[in-house]
Amino acid sequence: xxxxxxxxxxxxQSIKKVTPQVGVVLGSGLGAFVDRIEDPTVIPYSEIxxxxxxxxxxxxxxxxxxxxxxxxVAVLQGRIHxxxxxxxxxxxxxxxxxxxxxxxxxxxxxxxxxxNKAYAxxxxxxxxxxxxxxxxxxxxxxxxxxxxxRFPDMTQAYNPEVREILATSAQKIGLKLHTGVYAGMLGPxxxxxxxxxxxxxxxxxxxxxxxxxxxxxxxxxxxxxxGISCITNMAAGIQGKKLSHDxxxxxxxxxxxxxxxxxxEAIEKIGSMN
Length: 274
Ligand code: HPA
Known about the structure:
five-stranded mixed beta barrel, alpha/beta, 8 helices, binds hypoxanthine
């Protein structure tokens, strides 16, 4: 696995010699952020060894190398999910490749259903922590010591400094942000109202079907993680409305401008961290 990761990193470096400082994963419907990337080099996942093409509508499946506000970035436009049938090690493969390319910070973004009743569709939330409800973990199996320790600490899975940068960036651009706990479900069904109620009691503020595997893999690698959820809908049973992927994609598109402004501002600040 370690060799395979290295070969993929070499392939990417053969297309463009890069040393990205910040990695970004763009979730469902949030791909338009790529318009903010300066001097972009675009590589479709289908051309990258070890990467899988995205099968879900709203996920494009391209790696984009370039700069945002002068900071070198590697942006994954679209991700694969466990519900598509991929093993966890394939889901976190792109995250690990970005680590080998040199990223120090990873910004994970997603569309999520709001459990916290103070949220509304269109709100953006800084992820402060997660609950892994997938009954899977990308680190199961022999530990790859070159990547990280057998038992990684997850006390600050979402780096406090990065969270602070996201909060101050939002303030600067006049954007109201919440902070909350993300529950990661396997999917592909949306949750039942009873499941949503249980997760609320357990401390979750929002729910989605991604992010947790990449966050775990990045923490294993010692990379600072930041997370932003776009509340595309209230979770099942909160408003009594039925959920549809089309509505969810539409809502993500509506917040695109705020979302892109926030990411741009945060990346600039992260670029001057340390
Ligand atoms: N549940 C799970 N995943 C989601 C949701 C939801 O309500 N909204 C967007 N992604």
